[in-house]
Hints:
This protein is an alpha/beta fold and 373 residues long.
Amino acid sequence: MKIGVPKEIKTLEFRVGMTPAGVHEVVTDGHEVIVETKAGMGIGETDAAYEAAGATVVATPEEVFAAADMIVKVKEPQLHECAMLSPGQVLFTYLHLAADAAQTEALIKSGSTAIAYETVTAADGSLPLLTPMSEVAGRLSIQAGAFALQKANGGCGKLLGGVPGVQPANVLVIGGGVSGTNAADMAVGLGANVTILDRSLPRLRELDDIWGGRVHTVYSTKHAIDELAPKADLIIGAVLIAGAAAPKLVSAQNIKDMQPGSVMVDISIDQGGCFETSKPTSHADPTYVVDDVVHYCVTNMPGAVPRTSTYALTNATLPFVKSLANLGWKEALSRDPHLANGLNVHSGHVNHEAVARDLGYDYLSAADALKTA
Length: 373
């Protein structure tokens, strides 16, 4: 198989779909890898390093897309990249389609087979290709929030952990999954007063055990958010429904009730965001203000630390890349139902139920897609 690795083009996105070590693995298996020049520059990997691993380096993305049987990326393809995809070509990357009708339509039109990292599952029900980036985003959310709380950056001027004799900031984390847990861990480490909301009592018990009571755990209801949001200096939105649009849990009225200079960080923005006032931003212009509350809604948060993020991500994706290359996508998905859950679009059909429901498309299951492929 010919595997293509284009340079990421989303604003200030420096990650890359494969490292030289990953290239060496698949080349050893007998495959070809075509890498766009400077694709690895953001993580400190040179064209020479890719060539030494066995890749062919080309000058343009058009050459990558034209030559490859499978495209391996990090972020969702931009619309002009979707236009370079062809029928029968496999795309393996993050997609987040439920919040992106234009990309979904473009992928359907392309006739390609699009497999999304974020909906691949594991035997325990977890999302193994989303987990590493959720860990990074959760930790970054506290760094971003602490920075935004500084007066010069629009915040109220509170130090997250306070100092002796001065109260620390109040941090409210909505969602006790991977990103929420990592956010809480960072906030606790900095000395903040942390509260986590979740709708799973077993998970709340686990979180209580993790920190030995140093984090307040609260069952998530509208009333709880109404009560806690006005007291929070920093709210982290860390809600995920796999493949689906994020629910709007923090209302515009909640924002109005918050203290001026408070900060919101919406980790869920890739799936549309869980704050009613959220809108996508980039690392080039990461924040905006609504009702005197600073909003940080960057859609590719882990891109701020591309070296850590790329290696964390590719450690998880490489086994699946190898499986898709060695077996072909149909056989790989037929053998692995968890990888099959990653199938979002194939040959003009939407194959993920939540995406189809949220965007109003007919749903064709991955199993049925494989029967007709």
